Amino acid sequence: QVQLVQSGAEIKKPGASVKVSCKASGYIFTGYYIHWFRQAPGQGLEWMGWINPNSGGTKYAQNFQGRVTMTRDTSISTAYMELSRLTTDDTAVCYCARVLAAPSAFDIWGQGTMVTVSS
Amino acid sequence: SYVLTQPPSVSVAPGKAARITCGGNNIGSKRVHWYQQKPGQAPVLVISYDSDRPSGIPERFSGSNSGNTATLTISRVEAGDEADYYCQVWTSITDLPIFGGGTELTVL
Fold first, then answer.
1. What's the confidence (pLDDT) of residue B94?
2. Is the pLDDT assigned to residue A11 strictly greater than 90?
3. Is pLDDT of B92 > 80?
4. Shortest CB distance from A109 goes to which of B31, B42, B48?
5. Is the pLDDT of residue B93 over 90?
6. Which residues of chain B does A105 touch, with a Cβ-Cβ cutoff of 8 Å?
7. Which residues does A7 contact at the CB level (< 8 Å), separation at least 6?
8. Which of A45, A61, A99 sits opposite B99 (nearest CB)?
9. Three-state secondary structure along chain B?
10. Pairing of strands B103-107, B9-12
11. Given a cut of 80, is residue A95 above it in pLDDT?
């Protein structure tokens, strides 16, 4: 079936980087954009950016410019999101989700990856 | 920037209808999507393009969109419908996704 499976929980120290993976299966990976979101404890969804798995093109939210890098490996149908210079405010669950293109809906989401930043 | 406004919480008795609103300037001109998120789980699409139900979503879920308000209606609410609900649109020029702040649905 169509699914996105994310990597496991991460615990990082302030100043470190984290890289989260999102493996697609059940559909043509290059046919859909992958967007990344995060959700701090008790908060709503915050958009981080997207990657076009076909071209590798990316667009990042202004809040994360300079700190986030999104990549993909089409040979294994996997997208990656790396966030650097972590602070405790980056403690959140990160989600990947696929979308055909605007104005479509995000129809498949990954299960989420908890990123904890603590000294 | 475009803002979507949702009530923080809605409460409803079992068997009654719950209506969750999403306000935005001329939102009726946009296509609205709704997501359900239960505690500890990822969001799930429940309504797309204002009123379309994805496969597997009960008929009790419906949506409408007109003027400055989009509405998600859940008829005959069940305990299992307790969740946070988010509306979402795309910005007109930059094609970026925007989410409402979310509404916590409580079944009394």
1. 78
2. yes
3. no
4. B42
5. no
6. 33, 45, 48-49, 88
7. A20, A21, A22, A113
8. A45
9. CCCCECCCEEEECCCCCEEEEEECCCHHHCCCEEEEECCCCCCEEEEECCCECCCCCCCCEEEEEECCEEEEEECCCCHHHCEEEEEEEECCCCCCEEECCCEEEEEC
10. parallel
11. yes
Averaged over A108-112, what is the pLDDT?
98
A95/B43 touch (CB, cutoff 8 Å), yes or no: yes
| B97/A36 Cα distance (integer angstroms) | 11
Nearest-angstrom CA–CA distance, B44 and B37: 6
Distance of alpha carbon A91 from alpha carbon A89, whole angstroms: 5
Mean pLDDT of chain B: 96
Contacts of B29 (CB under 8 A, 6+ apart): none
Nearest CB partner across the interface for A44, out of B31, B97, B99:
B99
Tell me: the pLDDT tens digits for A15-56?
999 999 999 999 999 999 999 999 999 999 999 999 999 999
Q: Do B90 and A102 touch (CB under 8 A)?
A: yes
